[in-house]
Amino acid sequence: xxxxxxxxxxxxxxxxxxxxxxxxxxxxxxxxxxxxxxxxxxxxxxxxxxxxxxxxxxxxxxxxxxxxxxxxxxxxxxxxxxxxxxxxxxxxxxxxxxxxxxxxxxxxxxxxxxxxxxxxxxxxxxxxxxxxxxxxxxxxxxxxxxxxxxxxxxxxxxxxxxxxxxxxxxxxxxxxxxxxxxxxxxxxxxxxxxxxxxxxxxxxxxxxxxxxxxxxxxxxxxxxxxxxxxxxxxxxxxxxxxxxxxxxxxxxxxxxxxxxxxxxxxxxxxxxxxxxxxxxxxxxxxxxxxxxxxxxxxxxxxxxxxxxxxxxxxxxxxxxxxxxxxxxxxxxxxxxxxxxxxxxxxxxxxxxxxxxxxxxxxxxxxxxxxxxxxxxxxx
Length: 379
Prior knowledge:
The glycine cleavage system is composed of four proteins: P, T, L and H. Its EC number is 2.1.2.10. Residues 294-371 form the Aminomethyltransferase C-terminal domain. The protein is α+β, with helices and mostly antiparallel strands. The chain folds into 3 domains: 8-52 and 149-245, Gyrase A, domain 2 (2-Layer Sandwich), CATH 3.30.1360; 55-145, 2-Layer Sandwich (Alpha-Beta Plaits), CATH 3.30.70.1400; 293-366, Elongation Factor Tu (Ef-tu), domain 3. It has helices spanning 8-13, 33-42, 62-69, 117-134, 160-166, 215-226, 236-245, 281-289, and strands at 17-21, 24-29, 44-48, 55-58, 82-88, 94-104, 107-111, 142-145, 150-156, 179-186, 189-196, 205-211, 231-233, 294-300, 312-315, 318-328, 335-342, 351-356, 359-366. The strands form 4 sheets. It has a 6-stranded mixed β-sheet. Strands 14-17-16-15-18-19 form a 6-stranded antiparallel barrel. Strands 5-6-7-4-8 form a 5-stranded antiparallel β-sheet, covered by helices on one side.
């Protein structure tokens, strides 16, 4: 039986179309997925992200352990910073891509993807055991699954900052990829949250972390404040089309156990300069020195037929790649796709054919992302 988030009653009240995602019952859409997509691009959208994992790694030695368990270098991070990182496998694959926050000197928050949370928790436990066996001064850090006790919401879009300012939050002080405690205030009521500024839509946006029992009150407070800003609740369908336009990876599509970070264009997430050893380091050093046979590219088409994950890509009758994600872009009004192709066919403006249910459709290679917002000061 699929898990439900603390906002399940809200989704039911709003008449959301629900779907199973990573073992969770989640809203696919509330009304029009196109309207929800456009609200995030033009105004502001509100997402329930409570299906995402939340893992606390805290105590003496936590920083060094994270350096061992993940590809990033966490030692230079100051309190209140966030880092996008990868959980590697020993043979060079990716178990998950995720964000880690430094909440205090020895207190860290790890956010795995929903379906990967059990695997990440198991890997952290196993790596902690191995790490301690190798390091007599490993420290007394602990690992705890705090996801069931918490909720996460995301406010995304060009009016997201203005909306939160209306709720008394000093958003201008919160830079991109940082987090800080905050208090939402309206009509004499208040809610304490952890506020982060990251996002997965290509727009400016914020994540709000709160106790599960306060989730509905926080949601309602945001909805009320968002009425004058054109806010719409948004589901997974809009979240996927938004991240695709922004050229952002989705685990299970652009990333998996068989894809290494260098093929995926994520070599910058692997810190080979850090002094600490980490899982798979020797393999990643070898891959970093080589040239991947395939690389991730963007594809666009002038027609209306959208390529989907798994569709083969051809060049003069020879299969040279495979689509990982694809859809008709609501913003750009034409099909876009992300795909792995043989390196010799990865240059921008290369013409390729995608086999869409037995019919070849012409596509053209472009640089990612497909959509890029105009950034404002402070974000």
